[in-house]
Specification:
The protein has 330 residues and is α/β, with parallel strands linked by helices. It folds into two domains: 148 residues, Rossmann fold (3-Layer(aba) Sandwich); 153 residues, Glycogen Phosphorylase B (Rossmann fold). The strands form two sheets. A seven-stranded mixed sheet has the order 3-2-1-4-5-6-7, sandwiched between helices. It has a six-stranded parallel sheet with strand order 10-9-8-11-12-13, with helices on both faces. Helix 4 packs across helix 8 and helix 6 runs parallel beside helix 7. It is elongated.
Length: 330
């Protein structure tokens, strides 16, 4: 099926950036050769209520403002991401575009209602699914655009004057309710990356999450016996993440962030992940999927140098869009 009319509904609510990014990635791929509509939906404070309460409230009571849909005569597919946005997608279909298929990214909001096409992450938690379910390894992210790359590298070019590249990029995740990087783990990790850096004669570009404990940061610095530039997010304003991703020939990741790690893996560079006992089961399932599909390699304790392997794409958008179109065409 070609020439689809695709409506991407974007939610302007807290923590919606990742959901909206995934929505647009899928919508743009499905709309190739067709038409893409993009609409923003703003909600009032009721949207912050727990999900089980929201399920009992009419969706029109949650809406603060919506874009006018009069310019859309018809659409074949509505793409939406997130548990809360699926209710609004159903509302729009019922009153404006009956018969349209809904592509939902994420877990089903209502366990007993039929979802047309569900895209969910392997290992994600949910009770029931739908017949037309497509599993993906991680979050849908984008490669850094060349324009963005050039802009961010120029902004941070003073860093390159301190070190001679090429580099190894190191991302250190922080503390959350489900993950806490300990001093012992940080010490082992820093010794491994220091050894690799020394053997490969490649400086480290180290980026820490804002939630990394300051004592852990000191442990890492004290155990680095190599050339490196350390960016402490707590003490700086201009985050050089994009520049670090562009400059680095390899990535080494530690943490529990599926979002961040998906973004790194999507760049297509050799990526190594250090698995720890602090990782949650959900992240462990995500990591196991990456390793089994040759998206990444595990950073083992005895690794001396990094292999310049060619990783498999995290998510093949063209293949994913073909599967969605096959479901729509049934």
């Amino acid at each position: 099926m070609a020439g689809l009319k695709v409506l991407a509904i974007l939610g302007q609510i807290k923590h919606s950036r990742v959901d909206n990014t995934q929505t647009m990635i899928i919508a743009e791929e499905l709309a190739k050769g067709g038409v893409l509509y993009k609409k923003d939906v703003f909600f009032n404070m009721l949207i912050n209520l727990p999900s089980f309460i929201l399920s009992m409230i009419p969706v029109w009571l949650l809406v603060k403002h919506i874009d006018d849909f009069k310019d859309i005569e018809d659409c074949d597919v509505i793409v939406v991401s997130g548990k809360k946005m699926i209710r609004y997608a159903r509302h729009i279909r019922k009153h404006m575009f009956p018969g349209t298929k809904i592509v939902q990214i994420g877990n089903p909001y209502c366990s007993i209602r039929k979802n047309d096409i569900l895209i969910r992450q392997e290992g994600s938690k949910f009770i029931l699914t739908c017949k037309n379910t497509i599993k993906i390894n991680g979050l849908l992210c984008e490669k850094i655009q060349q324009e963005t790359e050039e802009k961010e590298c120029k902004r941070c070019e003073k860093i390159t004057s301190m070190l001679k590249g090429p580099y190894i990029g190191v991302f250190i995740g922080g503390k959350s309710f489900s993950y806490h990087l300990t001093k012992q783990t940080a010490e082992r990790f820093s010794k491994i990356v220091s050894k690799i850096s020394y053997n490969m004669k490649m400086p480290l570009l180290i980026l820490t999450d804002k939630k990394v404990n300051k004592d852990v940061i000191e442990v890492i610095k004290n155990n680095l016996d190599c050339s490196y530039y350390f960016y402490d997010a707590k003490k700086n304003v201009e985050n050089p993440k994009v520049a670090f991703m562009c400059w680095s020939s390899y990535y080494i990741l530690i943490g529990n962030s599926i979002n961040d790690h998906s973004e790194y893996v999507m760049q297509g560079k050799p990526t190594y992940i250090y698995s720890t006992k602090e990782n949650t089961r959900r992240y462990t399932n995500f990591l196991n999927g990456l390793v089994s599909n040759n998206n990444v390699k595990l950073l083992e304790e005895d690794i001396e140098v990094l292999d310049e392997f060619i990783p498999e794409p995290l998510n093949d958008l063209e293949k994913l869009a073909t599967e969605i179109k096959n479901y729509i065409n049934q």
